[in-house]
């Protein structure tokens, strides 16, 4: 099929990040906390907001990816379990990045 024959609607697209379970403490904990939900009639397992924030910080750490940092700031803006984030942020070595994202909420 040629690309010009493909039709799609942006309003129906869903972006999904697939995470392969690694054998480390955080990922085992993250997977244990995931919840099953329905997305467009399809059952899926979804990690919690705090675990997504922490994963994005881990992904951002080597390059300080502006995209990941902006995502974290947006996620934090709607509230999160601060104690959980602080605990795992320190254990994962992303506490400084987490603090920057938290501080960005208060910058004009």
Structural summary, described in words:
The chain is mainly alpha-helical and 108 residues long. The chain has one domain. Helices cover 50% and strands 9% of the residues. It has five helices and two strands; from the N terminus they run αββαααα. It has helices at 25-33, 49-60, 66-77, 82-92, 95-104, and strands at residues 35-39, 42-46. It has a two-stranded antiparallel sheet with strand order 1-2.
Order of helices and strands: HEEHHHH
**Total beta-strand segments:** 2
**Structural class from helices and strands?**
mainly alpha
Shape: globular
Map the helices and strands.
Elements: H1 25-33, E1 35-39, E2 42-46, H2 49-60, H3 66-77, H4 82-92, H5 95-104
Antiparallel strand pairs: 1-2
Helix pairs in contact: 2-3, 2-4, 3-5
